[in-house]
Amino acid sequence: MRRAVLLVCGVLLVADAAAAAGLDWEVTERADAPVPVQAARNVRDGLLGLGDAFFDANTAVFGCFALGASQLFIGAADGVGLVDDNPLTQHVSKGVLSKNLAKIAYLWHLAGAESLLGSHGLEVERWASSEVAELNPLLSDEDVAELEGPLPLDPLAFVGEATFHTDAYRPHAPFVDLGAVLLVDGALLPAASLLRIAQLRAPADALDERATSLFRSALELGW
């Protein structure tokens, strides 16, 4: 509940700045347009929504596999590190191979995190959370971590001094995200688009919001 309140405050704080800067895909349209124009917009938005669900699904699925690849690479890095970065060999090899494997693991992690958080309109919420963390000095480190969410991890989780980088093995459950993608992008969002085409805009908007909320919850549950 506290996170929701903080997030709402963040959205309100950055709304004016976001409106001034604008997003590349946003278009300002008159709210009081004639009924035939609104009907045409609903059909247009419904058709575009079907395509948007397809692309969001692809982005999210890539994110799931990228996070899986990240954990494979950090596992390889820690395994190799036992050979080239132990107290004896680190003065000779300086952990060159394990270090670079860990860097690749972080790059895969970052790509996966950005893909998941950049889908389904969640990028705007991330910006709002970041603004709240910067504008409110009274927030504790725990509050900031809760507000910003589990992704992405700090780079030091992958390359910090440690034998095993346990934070990078956080129990991500990709099947949770994949299940959410199947439900959200395969059923809920297409259904919302069809409702919008049928001129049922209010139920369509409510279903859109429900689908986004479900996907957000799946991301939190997967970590």
Features:
mainly alpha; 73% helix; elongated
Explain this structure to me?
This protein is mostly helical and 223 residues long. It has one domain (2-19, 39-221). Helices cover 73% and strands 0% of the residues. The chain has helices at residues 2-21, 35-84, 96-117, 122-135, 141-148, 156-159, 174-197, 201-221. The longest helix has 50 residues, at 35-84. It is elongated and about 75 Å long. It starts with a helix and ends with a helix. Residues 14-20 have low confidence and may be disordered.
Cα(first) to Cα(last) distance is 19 Å
Number of helices: 8
What is the overall pLDDT average?
A: 81
- Computed structural class: mainly alpha
Q: Quick one: how many beta strands?
A: 0
**Share in β-strands:** under 5%
Our count of domains comes out at 1
Gyration radius from CA atoms, angstroms: 21 Å
List the helices and strands and how they pair.
Elements: H1 2-21, H2 35-84, H3 96-117, H4 122-135, H5 141-148, H6 156-159, H7 174-197, H8 201-221
Give the gist of this structure:
The protein is built from 8 helices and no strands. With 223 residues, the chain is mainly α. The chain has one domain.
